[in-house]
Write a structure and sequence with these properties.
This protein is of the alpha+beta class. The protein has a domain of about 80 residues: OB fold (Dihydrolipoamide Acetyltransferase, E2P) (Beta Barrel). Helices cover about 35% and strands about 30% of the residues.
Length: about 140
C-alpha cells in the first residue's frame, strides 16, 4: 500500500511540474520593449488630432502665411510640408483656384495649422489604389 501512495505522490509532482513549465516559458518568450506604453501614447494622440481638408483655394495670404479653402482658413507653419506636382513647394506656389488637399492640427487657440498640403490633383497611382479599394467587396 505504501508503494501505491508513493507512486501517486510522484505522479502528482511530475504532472504539476509539466503544467507549470509551459506557463513559465511563455512569460519568458514575450518580447521586452524599452519604450513604455505611456511614451507611445503621444504619437498616437498626435495622429488622431489631425483632420483632412480638400477643395479649391479661395485666398492665399503669404504675409499672414494663411490659405483659405472653403470656409477654413489654414495657417502654414515652418513644419508644414507642401508638395506641388509631387515635388517640394512653398506657399507662394499656391494660387487661387488651385485644388489642394492635406491635413491640419487644431492648436489650443483653435487655429488650424497645416501639417501637409498637396497642390494639384492626386497622384494617378493613388487614384488607382483608391478606385481599387472602392471596387473591392466589403469584408
Amino acid at each position: 500500500m505504501k508503494t501505491q501512495t508513493v507512486k501517486t505522490i510522484l505522479f502528482s509532482l511530475v504532472t504539476s511540474a509539466l503544467v507549470a513549465v509551459p506557463t513559465i516559458s511563455r512569460a519568458e518568450d514575450k518580447p521586452k520593449t524599452d519604450v513604455p506604453a505611456s511614451a507611445a501614447a503621444p504619437a498616437l494622440a498626435a495622429k488622431k488630432n489631425r483632420a483632412p481638408f480638400h477643395g479649391k483655394v479661395s485666398a492665399v495670404d503669404t504675409a499672414a502665411m494663411t490659405l483659405t479653402v472653403g470656409a477654413q482658413t489654414i495657417n502654414v507653419t515652418s513644419e508644414s510640408k507642401i508638395t506641388k506636382d509631387n515635388k517640394p513647394g512653398t506657399l507662394s506656389d499656391i494660387a487661387v483656384g488651385d485644388l489642394v488637399g492635406g491635413a491640419y492640427k487644431k492648436d489650443e487657440a483653435g487655429k488650424l495649422n497645416a501639417t501637409t498640403i498637396r497642390v494639384g490633383e492626386k497622384d494617378p497611382k493613388e487614384l488607382k489604389k483608391e478606385k481599387k479599394k472602392a471596387a473591392e467587396p466589403a469584408k
